[in-house]
């Protein structure tokens, strides 16, 4: 329904209808505000036609006023339109505010219908209610359907985020679940163990057969995060990974952990120290950290953290350490 501002001549009667789902209440008043008819009617075509006929018997010059322009009022509005009856519309909020200025504290359908009719009688700023064209009706149906689909999709994405947060927080932060590819990935692999067992190559093939775009990049991201999550926990247990100190909206604060295995930290520290003599890659990494401004102890701890990643990769792949990565011929 659309509301247009048009000049409406002053009628003889005003019929206010308090719209309900099953029943309406109609009150008809004259120019002096006297009630000429007050009736509670069923929301049924036969009953509504009888009400309209009875009101028109009193006078043919009637202005109908309703507090709802859709839903339960649709049948009444359609019947009034078919009989070329003028209508106006007051919002429920306007009726609620106006009812406080009338005598009595009680609230009934009859009182609300009288308030609607009386407000239509006194106010001249109300627009005339007219039916919308078929295109507007179709557009409203389509937009409502689209809003429902968007709400359903948002709920599904939120549930996936909540579930994945309990299983694999690192992957939850990395995946954009509004895209199809990450959702397809989760249908087959949800845990770090499952991703590590499959491997990046197998996941890439699995995604490619399902026609997922950028399958190689997505598979590599999942594999890297699975390895990183486990190596990060090992480093945290050894005291080589910073612990977050966040609260409320404050995030990103990292502090040295207070609870960790000091024996494991010592083992990694001594391992990093010993590697400076016999491992050129470790020595190069150590001096790179020194050139960045770190002192000897800080550079050794950075090297120990790096060796945690290497150690975890060796455990994960069941391979021995090789200073030069092995390349396979194409």
TrEMBL record:
MF-aspect GO terms: DNA binding; transposase activity
Residue ranges annotated for the Transposase IS110-like N-terminal domain, each copy included: 15-169
Domain of life: Bacteria
InterPro entries: Transp_IS110-like_N (IPR002525), Transpos_IS110 (IPR047650), Transposase_20 (IPR003346)
Record-annotated Transposase IS116/IS110/IS902 C-terminal domain positions: 214-286
Signal peptide: none
Pfam family name, one: DEDD_Tnp_IS110
GO biological process: DNA transposition
Protein name as catalogued: Transposase
Organism from which the protein derives: Amycolatopsis pithecellobii
Phylogenetic placement of the source organism: Bacteria, Bacillati, Actinomycetota, Actinomycetes, Pseudonocardiales
């Amino acid at each position: 329904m659309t509301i247009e501002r048009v000049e409406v001549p002053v009628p003889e009667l005003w019929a206010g209808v308090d719209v309900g789902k099953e029943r309406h209440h109609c009150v008809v008043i004259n120019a002096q505000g006297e009630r000429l008819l007050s009736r509670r009617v069923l929301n049924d075509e036969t009953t509504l036609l009888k009400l309209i006929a009875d009101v028109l018997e009193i006078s043919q010059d009637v202005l109908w006023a309703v507090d709802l322009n859709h839903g339960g009022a649709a049948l009444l509005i359609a019947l009034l339109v078919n009989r070329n009856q003028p209508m106006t519309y007051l919002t429920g909020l306007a009726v609620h505010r106006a009812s406080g200025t009338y005598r009595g504290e009680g609230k009934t359908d009859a009182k609300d219908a009288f308030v609607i009719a009386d407000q239509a009688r006194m106010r001249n700023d109300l627009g005339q209610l007219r039916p919308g064209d078929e295109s507007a009706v179709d557009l409203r149906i389509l937009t409502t359907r689209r809003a429902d689909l968007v709400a359903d999709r948002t709920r599904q994405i939120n549930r996936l985020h909540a579930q994945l947060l309990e299983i694999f927080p690192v992957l939850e932060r990395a995946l954009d679940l509004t895209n199809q590819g990450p959702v397809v990935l989760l249908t087959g692999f949800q845990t770090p163990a499952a991703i590590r067992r499959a491997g990046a190559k197998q996941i890439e093939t699995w995604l490619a057969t399902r026609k997922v775009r950028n399958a190689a990049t997505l598979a590599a991201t999942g594999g890297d995060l699975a390895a990183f999550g486990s190596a990060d926990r090992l480093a945290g247990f050894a005291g080589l990974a910073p612990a977050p100190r966040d609260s409320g909206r404050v995030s990103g604060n990292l502090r040295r952990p207070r609870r960790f295995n000091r024996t494991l930290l010592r083992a990694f520290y001594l391992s990093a120290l010993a590697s400076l003599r016999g491992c050129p890659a470790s020595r190069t990494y150590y001096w790179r950290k020194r050139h960045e401004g770190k002192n000897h102890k800080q550079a050794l701890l950075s090297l120990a953290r790096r060796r945690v990643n290497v150690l975890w990769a060796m455990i994960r792949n069941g391979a021995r350490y090789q200073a030069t990565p092995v390349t396979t011929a194409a």
